[in-house]
Amino acid sequence: MPKLKTKKMVAKRFKLTKNGKIKRSKANKSHILTKKTSKRKRRLRRATITDKTNVKAIKMVLHN
């Protein structure tokens, strides 16, 4: 049986935490930043935990 390959696109976007949760970066931080407040941009910098509805699918393509 061949080994399952990790989807590199997913591996770059998501990191697995020690407790098995999946960490991701927030969207809307790449362009059109002039109309966004400093407070909003600062919050977008921080990473967040992925919603539990997507965890199973992400872990499947990460193969962890």
TrEMBL record:
MF terms in GO: structural constituent of ribosome
Keywords, ordered alphabetically: Ribonucleoprotein, Ribosomal protein
InterPro entries: Ribosomal_bL35 (IPR001706), Ribosomal_bL35-like (IPR021137), Ribosomal_bL35_CS (IPR018265), Ribosomal_bL35_sf (IPR037229)
The keyword Secreted appears for this protein: no
SUPFAM superfamilies hit by this protein: L35p-like
Any matching Pfam family: Ribosomal_L35p
Any Gene Ontology biological process: translation
GO cellular component, one term: cytosolic large ribosomal subunit
Region listing for Disordered, in residue ranges: 23-43
UniProt xrefs under PANTHER family: 54S RIBOSOMAL PROTEIN BL35M (PTHR33343), LARGE RIBOSOMAL SUBUNIT PROTEIN BL35M (PTHR33343:SF1)
Membership in a protein family: Belongs to the bacterial ribosomal protein bL35 family.
Name of this protein: Large ribosomal subunit protein bL35
Organism whose genome encodes this protein: candidate division TA06 bacterium 34_109
